[in-house]
Structure formats: structure tokens, C-alpha cells
Amino acid sequence: MASIENSTHLKVEHLLNSVRQLSPGELDEFTRKFTEWQQQQVVGGEDVDPDATDAEVVAFIRKNSQLPEKAYRRYWQLRHKREDETLSDDEQQAYEALLQQSTVMDIKRLEALTILVHRWGKPVKEIMAELGLIVSHLDDPEFTAESTPETYAENHSVESDKKVESDAF
After folding, report:
1. For 131, which of 4, 25, 101, 111 is 20 to 30 Å away at the CA?
2. In the predicted model, what is the mean pLDDT of residues 131-153?
3. Domain containing residue 138
4. DSSP letters along 102-163, please?
């Protein structure tokens, strides 16, 4: 087991040494491509199983209804800077990557909702209302200092007392 850990450590050190030798332009390109790859791994790795139970499909929908809080905060920070026309090139790339991640999540959520539409024979809006699902990424959030991922998710990803937004689809 120790030889595996040492081997992995050596690979990481070798990669870091290679990255350190990149020119600033090459490092920017590497960073951009690595970030894109990371985001594809986080979001692109899982698809809804058409044979999953209703509960599993609902859990998948909820998981894909909101970016993780840190990414969501960053998205809004960059969105505001974009509106003020003060984004740097790196920030623009990060903003576009977050938009892409959000779009992939939207697609995955809609695929899962389609499964429930076919199973339950009801329109998407009705299913979302029944499940208390609100897609709130279109609204400017109100973050608080004491907000945690758990409390944020409880307060923003799934809200049963609010009307389903019709422009979310």
C-alpha cells in the first residue's frame, strides 16, 4: 500500500514540476482547460437512470436544481461584474464555465423531470409544484454571513410555499 501512495505522490510532484515550467501564457491556457475539465467531472459525470425509483429521480432533480453554494456565490459575483462591464478575461472565462455548468444541470434536471412527466402523466409545472421545487438561479440571491450550504439549500433550492417560476423553462 505504501508503494502505491508513494507512486501517486511522485506522479503529482512530476505533474507540478511540469506545470511550473510553463510560460505565463501556457499556464493560463492550462488553468483554463483544467478548470473546464474539473467542472465537467463535477457535473457531467452522472446521468439520471431511467429505471430509478421516483424517489431517486426526485433526489436527482433536487441535486441538479442549484449550483453548490460557493459556485453560486461566484456566479453572482461575476454576473454583477459583467453587468458593470468590469470582468477581466479570466473572470469572463470563469463566468462562462459556471454558465455552462448551470446549463448542464438544467438539462439533467429536465431529463429527470421528463421521466416523471411520462410516469405520472402530469405537466412539469404541476410536478414541480407538487414536489415544492423552485429553480431560483434566475433570481438575485440574498446571501448572509451565517449562510451555510445546508441552510442555503433549505431556503433556496426547495421551497414549497412559493409559486413555481414559469420562466425557468
Report:
1. 101
2. 55
3. 46-168
4. HHHHHHHHHHHHHHHHHHH---HHHHHHHHTB---TTSPP---TT--HHHHHHHHTB-SSSP
